[in-house]
Fold each of these.
Amino acid sequence: MPQPGPAHSWGGTLATASGLVIAGEDGGALALVGAAKAEGTAEADNGVVEIPADPGGALAYVFAEAVAPAGQITFRSPNESAVDHNIAIEGTGVDELGPVVKNGGVSEVSVDLKAGEYTFYCSVVGHRAAGMEGPLRVN
């Protein structure tokens, strides 16, 4: 195996003089670091839908989808992690954002919803694109 100088590359790997080794292609393994999969459905209870952020700090909510009746609904998203998250609702003329929180904070937003299809998501830059969103069905 060749010995690295100040910086030497072989086989898609770069080694620097400080000993730092940087892999060329990870086959997607780095994309899975901190990954979490949302599951289940959050349902309204007395006008409140609670959709917690992943407590480990992954870019995910605990629930994959939500259902609520038409009318005034409050969405709460507790966030126990040190990673910024919030809850936002959009669709059918609605685009409301809750505050960004972390370390035990709760992002909350109240909206008057008509029957239809909406989306809940995290508006922190890059989080929605990473999959931190889900469908909201209002009956």
Amino acid sequence: MPYKKRAILTAVASGALLAICVAMTTCNAQTADPAQTYMLPANFDTVQDLYEACTSEDGGLRTVCAAYIAGIASLMGPIGSTRNVGLATRAYGVCSKSTISLGAFVQAFKNWATKHPEMWSHPMVLGVLVSLRGTWPCP
């Protein structure tokens, strides 16, 4: 693999991990109820776990969902706008001519998860990547 593509893919992977860590840390600290801190279970890692948080009656869990998806989407947008990346753009980017709201990203994940219960045991990061990429694919 040429050095430039390897460097780009390494940067993308590192950025994705950083965003996920930041999103999860933020979710534990900032909740819908400032007096309450949400400690996520150690096994909070599957598509089903994230879907249940996104559809929960609990505002704090919905905040966890939105922050997690926001962290991943915040990387996928810039990747999609970098047209010269090629394969990485198609695999890890979202492309849209207009701004995509956080609510639209969350709804895209929920719609995808509802249609794909066979994916519920997979890592939640995979579910978010596939659902957003499927809704806003890059050419």
Amino acid sequence: MDTTTMLGGSRQRTDPPDPREAIEGQRASSGLRAAYLLSAVIAVLMVVASAAGLWLHRLYQDPAWATAAFRGGDLATLLVAAPLLAGALLRSLRGSRRAHLVWLGMLAYSLYNYALYVFGTAFNDLFLLHVALFSLSVFALGLGLANVDVAGIGRGFRPRTPARPISGYLLAVAAVLGGMWSYHALRFAATGKLPQTAFPASGLHLIFTLDLALLVPSLALAAVLLWRRRAWGYLLGTVLSVYGAAYQVNFILATVFQANAHVVGVSGFDPLALLLATAFLLCAALLLGSLQPTTRTPAINAGTASIASRAPGGSVMATTATSPSTRSLTRLLRPRPAAGRRRNAARLGFGAFYLVTATFNLTVTLPDAAAPYKHIAHNLAWPGVDWLLLHLVVPAAVPLTVLLVAFEVGVGVLLLSKGQRVRLGLLAAVAFQVSLAPLLSWYELGNVPLVALALVLLARDYDRSVLDLVRR
């Protein structure tokens, strides 16, 4: 039986849906549904495993270099990887293609990370939990890649996407990493000598194996396909850039923990790791920024229900029923009256304030990063929060301060831009200022005017950035 739709005031006949497309859609939906379910379990188990690794000091029955590295990795997973995975999963369920790629990137992080825990640690109380995380990550990533709309995502990237510069970077990382590990392996075969590092032979063997078997081929394949502007190249390039940025944070924190454990040959801060993390983050931002927002209802959508009909030419017309949570977000971001001069001036001053605090933390706090956190822990922090500062924040003071500076710069840039970006910057500022309460005790009263100002500024829209105002 044929169906019709109203188009341009006339009734036009539509073709009935192809049964084979319906079957393929059901298979993809079931595969994605399984991957999403596994990912939710992974996010929860990540938090449990990471918290246990940080709080149970005798959990890892390994040499000092390995124990410190795993505990640093636990901190990175708890603060960065698990929240990113959970947030990307929720956004992907609501149809965001950008979040979908971030979700796949964090699954790649989980797979590589827990391969190290499974194959690189001695037996400990969390062995089965680490095995479960590794296994779940393998299947979730496999199902996610097998059921992703590669062609649709590939078409979503704008023609001016800087594919080749990013491809060159990924290929350079693959070549350097593969070349170094292959050289050391061949040198060992010829002379029996391994590189002089803080890691024993077993640790080098595991790192060489995972990188040469998984990471280097993946980076090289993504680089070649991205250079040729293939859909799989855009997808793999974005996924691996997200993975690379997240795992470099893991490596930085692992190095900080090793330095605090006085592991011989390890310095407290590795500038190269920070440079690589920044480069991967830039690649991910460029690729995700070049991917156009979702224009269709996803196959699985937790927040919306879609009713679609096929229009002439094969296009799909859909209406969407929105969930209460989506309606709340819509109300929060709905258009408001345009801001006048005073609010614009206050908004620009607020943005400048964040850039000034970022400059202060970069030039004054960072050189002796641990000292301010120790002072806060001993004099200001709430009971219990002082312990967290001394045992979790102080050992990683340098990279966490770098992340703080990056956050403050990001908020400042958002506040100085226009449109919805200003609203997001104000919301981030409110959340940040409120979250400081457990650290600052009664000094938090000084943040009350800032929170009040941000709430007042949220009542207006800002249609001009600081550059627009300067050009007038």
